[in-house]
Design a protein that fits this description.
Helices cover 46% and strands 32% of the residues. It is of the alpha/beta class. It is globular, with a radius of gyration of 13 Å.
């Protein structure tokens, strides 16, 4: 799992590349998210365009990230969701829990108005 972050128009953008599996892959994401929230950045976008595979642990990490962001008074969105993960979100009925946008630009626009 490769994680890159970037600030774009007041939004912290996470770029996840590879497989989102297991605790060791999730810990760096949660550490960066916590540091960002502690710094006052409460608008978070996960660009999943390069995500190859996600399992239930990875999905749980995204739910935890959503919960932590919203509990801090912020908002989170997912963009460029791969087909496999989109099917998983529909199957688990989590598609309505997450804000999902087709593009990074649409996600940033949503967060700027949230």
């Amino acid at each position: 799992m490769d994680i890159k972050t970037e600030q774009k128009e007041g939004v912290l953008v996470f770029f996840l590349n590879g497989n989102l599996l297991g605790e060791h892959a999730n810990a760096p994401v949660m550490e960066k998210l916590k540091a960002s929230i502690d710094e006052g950045n409460k608008k978070v976008l996960f660009n999943l365009g390069e995500l190859k595979f996600i399992n239930s642990t990875g999905l749980g990490m995204l739910l935890t990230a959503l919960s932590k962001t919203r509990n801090a008074g912020g908002e989170m969105t997912l963009t460029n969701v791969p087909d496999q993960m989109n099917k998983l979100l529909v199957m688990t009925k989590l598609k309505d829990v997450f804000n999902v946008h087709e593009s990074e630009e649409a996600g940033i626009a949503f967060l700027q108005n949230a």
